[in-house]
Amino acid sequence: MAKDSSFDIVSKVEFPEVTNAISMAMKEITTRYDFKGSKSTISLEKEELVLVSDDEYKLDQLKDVLLSKLAKRDVPIKNISYKKIENASGGTVRQRAELISGIDKDNAKKINTIIKNKGLKVKTQIQDDQIRVTGKSRDDLQQVIAAIKAADLPIDVQFINYR
Q: What is the pLDDT of residues 28-80, one digit of tens each?
C-alpha cells in the first residue's frame, strides 16, 4: 500500500525581510530629491506598517518606494491591507497598513472549494491558519498546487512541507 503524500498551504510574511525592505526604502528616501526636507518615515509596529509623510501625494510616493523594496525581497504585496489616511501631528498624514499572516476562514473555504472542484482524490484539513492537503498520488497534489496558483486569491499563498 502506497504511503500518502502531503503538503501545507500557508500564507506568511517574513518579518526580517520586511525590516530589511523598510531600511532599504528609508535609505532611498533620504537620497531622493523629491523627499528633500520631508518628514517621511516608515516604521514597523508589531505586525503593522506605519507610513508618515507631509501630504497624501508624498504618502503615495512613499508607498511606491516601499512596495518596490518589498517586492524585491519577495514579501507578498497582496498580504498588505491599508487602512484609511489620518492626520498626524506637525501637519503630516499617517497611514497604517496591516501585514496579513495566516489564512482566515473565508479564504480557507475558497481554497477548499477550488480543490473540491478539481475532482481529485485528495483530502483537505484546515489546521488553524494553514491547510494540509493529503493524497495518494503526487500528480494529484501537483494539480492542486497548479490550480491554487492559477486562482485569483485575495492573499498570497506558499506551499511548504511537500512530502
A: 999 988 888 888 889 998 889 999 998 888 889 999 999 999 999 988 888 88
- 2 confidence band (pLDDT: 50, 70, 90): low
| Distance (Å) of CA 64 to CA 29, 43, 116 | 11, 15, 38
DSSP, collapsed to helix, strand or coil, labels residue 149 as helix
Q: Grid coordinates in use for 67? A: 512596495
Q: Which residue has the cell 508607498?
A: 63
SS3 60: helix
**How much is the pLDDT for 27?**
92
Spatial distance between the Cα atoms of 14 and 59, rounded to a whole number of angstroms = 24
Q: Work out whether the CA dihedral 29, 34, 37, 39 comes out positive or negative.
A: negative
Provide the pairing of β-strand 48-53 with 80-82.
unpaired
Cβ proximity of 65 and 119 under 8 Å: no
Q: What is the pTM of this model?
A: 0.80
Question: What order of strands is seen across the sheet that includes strand 122-127?
Answer: 122-127, 130-135, 5-10, 158-160
How far apart CA 78 and CA 157 sit, in angstroms, is 10
φ, ψ at 40 (rounded to 5°): -90, 130
For residues 41 and 109, what is the distance between their CA atoms, to the nearest angstrom? Answer: 38
